[in-house]
Amino acid sequence: MFRQPGTVLTDHTFTVPLDHHRPGDGQIEVFAREVAPAGRRDGDPALPWLVFLQGGPGFGSPRPFGRESWLNRALDDYRVLLLDQRGTGRSTPASRHTLGRLGSPRAQAGYLSCFRADSIVRDAELIRRRLIGDEPWTVLGQSFGGFCATTYLSIAPEGIREALITGGLPGLDATADDVYRVTYPIVAERNRRHYERFPMDADRARAVARHLVSHEVILPGGARLTVPAFQSLGRMLGASSGSDTLHYLLEDAFAGAALSDAFLARAAAELSFAEAPLYGLVHEACYAQGAATRWAADRIMAEFPEFDPAAAVDGDITLLFTGEMIYPWMFETDPVLRPLRDAAEELAARESWPRLYDPARLAASDAPAAAAVYFDDMYVPRQLSLPTAGAIRGLRPWVTNEYQHDGLRVSNGAVLDRLIALARGAA
Fold first, then answer.
1. Fewest beta carbons less than 10 Å away: which of 285, 297, 401, 422?
2. Nearest 5°: CA angle at 364, between 425 and 21?
3. What mean pLDDT is reported for the chain?
4. Which H helix or E strand runs over 23?
């Protein structure tokens, strides 16, 4: 246990089965950090629990300092459990080092198939029972964490007192192909808005792309910066300050005739999978239900030729940045992912993915629920979220263009406060 301003933090480690359907096949550890308000209710066992499911997939839970961001609002009502989903943070890692010990790519892919929302939810249920027995808790899911919350309502609704979802209502039957057919046009529109704000960036982006065609550029950390890798910096455009961040990155791109060290360092930080290799490995798999994804983002991109960089490099067409997509070339250029290239191919070809959502159980759900659906969300589009909002009994959606996908983090508790009020019928 340790203290920060206004909070008391307690670390927990739980042993869970790698495969909840085959508990004899090995175990892993899942780490979680309990955050309780300091002061009058310090250590109060009656304070209800809220478990936070982080976005991703593949990122650890926030490392807080005091009562910051949405946590400040949450601690008014709850004791919060920040869950490092399996394979992330201080949980048993899933990386090139640990996966390499498993031997064949097929064995690695089989192991990774246990790192989706259904396994995360079963971990959470095991942890809930160990912490508080039969008492349900509130689930707060951001982005991919909202996918997990929807799975939670599908397979273990008895564990949920309230479900709060921000930017994370999935299409219940949407395939990875469906997702990218919706998101590529959204990303193109986000590019248009960016260049409308910063018209000077069109020439800068084109100049960087042309430089990369004629020069081999290696980023700090060893990854090769190619034109497609440069385009993938567009994933930042979905954040509230993403367009500004991209603009500032491009304005310092060159030092004379070469790309500047500052640009390369910042690009490396944005592009590296070192912090979250699982993000690259199981990103498309989080959409898979009963069929292979077969590198959906890469295949569907061919339906949107405006993203082909050749016209920008060879002519005066504006270079379009891509979004939250995973491509096979990432497993060639990034040294963190390169040893796992064959495992990624196995995952992309895997057919036997179980369903993640149960429409019948969602339609019968009696847990109070609320979801923020961001009207302009570049990552989880409203076109897929709104039908799901209507399919979950008792869920009250809040459709807003006041925030982008990171509204929970940047709103200083306002988004969470609205969701709590909606779930309780007070708004």
1. 401
2. 120
3. 96
4. none
Active site residues: 143, 377, 405
Instruction: Identify the pLDDT of residue 317.
Output: 87
At 110 the three-state DSSP class reads helix
Alpha-carbon span 208 to 230, nearest angstrom: 8
**Whole-angstrom Cα distance, residue 327 to residue 297?**
7
- pLDDT at residue 235, as a whole number: 97
- Please state, as a whole number, how many other Cβ atoms lie within 10 Å of the Cβ of residue 390: 11
Rg (C-alpha) for the chain, rounded Å, is 22
Spatial distance between the Cα atoms of 92 and 269, rounded to a whole number of angstroms: 24
Pairing between β-strand 254-255 and β-strand 7-17 as defined by DSSP bridges: unpaired
3-state DSSP call for residue 163?
strand
Q: Residue 16: is its pLDDT beyond 90?
A: yes
* Each residue's pLDDT tens digit, 242-261: 999 999 999 999 999 999 99
Report H helices in 93-199: 96-100, 105-112, 117-132, 144-155, 176-197
Of the candidates 106, 57, 26, 113, the one whose C-alpha atom is nearest the C-alpha of residue 354 is 113
d(CA 247, CA 243): 6
Domains and CATH numbers, the chain: 2-172+357-423 (3.40.50.1820), 176-349 (no CATH)
Q: DSSP letters along 208-260, please? A: HHHHHHHS--B-TTS-B--HHHHHGGGGGGGSTTHHHHHHHHHHT-EETTEE-
Distance from C-alpha of 423 to C-alpha of 216, rounded to nearest angstrom:
53
Whole-angstrom Cα distance, residue 345 to residue 29? 27
DSSP symbol at 62? P
Q: What are 190-209's pLDDT values in tens digits?
A: 999 999 999 999 999 999 99
Q: What is residue 41's predicted lDDT score, i.e. its pLDDT?
A: 53
C-beta separation of 157 from 361 below 8 A: yes
Instruction: Give the span between the Cα atoms of 371 and 329, in whole angstroms.
Output: 35
**Distance between CA atoms of 4 and 65, rounded to whole angstroms?**
6
Which amino acid is present at 299? R
Q: Which residues contact 323 (CB under 8 A, 6 or more apart)?
A: 183, 184, 186, 187, 190, 234, 235, 237, 238, 378, 379
C-alpha angle 268-299-288 in degrees, rounded to nearest 5:
90
Q: How confident is the model at residue 1 (pLDDT cuts 50, 70, 90)?
A: confident
